[in-house]
Amino acid sequence: MKIRAYFKDNLYKILVFIICYIINLLIFLAFKVNKQVIISSSFIYIICLLLIFLIPYFRKRKFYNDLLANIDSLDKSYLVLETLSKPEFYEGELLVSALYEINKSMNENVKLIEDHLQDFKEYIEMWIHEVKIPLSTLVLISNNHKDQFDQKIKLQLKRLEDYVDQVLYYARSENAEKDYLIKEVDLSLVIKNVGLKNMDEILENKIDYIVENTSYKVLTDSKWLEFILGQIVNNSIKYKKNSDKSYIKIFVQDEEDKTILIVEDNGIGIKNSDLKQVFDKSFTGENGRNTNQSTGMGLYIAKNMCKKLGHKIDIESIYNEYTKVYITFAKNKYYDVVK
């Protein structure tokens, strides 16, 4: 709270005070009051003027300075009301009362919106589960009657199933901690499941699915890790080169304090200008615009889920040469001791 701004805001009071002083001075002169009395009364007027403005200023300054400082220091500024001490002046009490009512109204509206979102989320999840039943049935029928179903139809069914899964995991990702269970998981089994799920597309695109040195156990949720790895493998298939020597190579680097799962492909790669944004929501980049197959959501959800699971995901690529995705699992030494 700046004193110059405070005095400027109260300038009209100063002007009124000066006018009153001039009138009083004229009255003294009209009645030929002694000079010493005039000087003494003028001095008293000045002291009174200073006290009238300085006392309220210092009473208010601490409250408003604390208010502004707390707003700047808080990540969530709307919680500032909880940090304020009770003001010792009426305007401050009015302000705190108004902030309380505003905060109360905001909380009520946020709760209402959260309830609506939760209802919508539950509906979406229910709808997805219902849609997955006929989809899974169609996939099963197509696999059991291969002679009656064109391979392109099977691939489109698989793609549709992947998009439905993506919606489901995205809907759950905001409250994923309620949906996952951290335990020891064999990476080779997860990689095998991802390969089987994408087998038709891998064969259709003539891609070598190479798995080396993956018999390691990490602490994670197998279902979520399978989804994350599936998104990475799908991207490798989607952005392959028009070549007969395409491959997806999955292997593990085991270090003292961490285990790193690496997915490498020799596809079209990612331009350096796009590399920093590949994990951004809905970002498709130049590759996505060229292929018209990208939603820009897969890697975003994967990054979000890795963060919640306590893993780290990074990507490295040279355009038209290769792409490598690294998923890093920290080792829990305490778990090693007590398991």
Features:
alpha+beta; 61% helix; 7 strands; single chain; two-stranded antiparallel sheet; elongated; 12 helices
Would you write up a description of this structure?
- The chain is built from 12 helices and 7 strands.
- It has 2 domains: 3-85, no CATH class; 183-338, Histidine kinase-like ATPase, C-terminal domain (Heat Shock Protein 90).
- With 339 residues, the protein is of the alpha+beta class.
- A 5-stranded mixed β-sheet has the order 2-4-5-7-6. The protein has a two-stranded antiparallel sheet with strand order 1-3.
- α2 (11-30) runs antiparallel to α3, α5 (151-173) packs across α11 (298-309) and α8 (222-238) packs antiparallel against α11.
- 61% of the residues lie in helices and 13% in strands.
What does the secondary structure layout of this molecule look like, with pairings?
Blueprint: H1 3-9, H2 11-30, H3 35-73, H4 90-144, H5 151-173, E1 183-186, H6 187-197, H7 199-204, E2 208-212, E3 217-220, H8 222-238, E4 247-254, E5 258-265, H9 272-275, H10 285-291, H11 298-309, E6 312-318, E7 322-330, H12 333-338
Parallel strand pairs: 2-4
Antiparallel strand pairs: 1-3, 4-5, 5-7, 6-7
Helix pairs in contact: 2-3, 4-5, 5-11, 6-8, 8-11
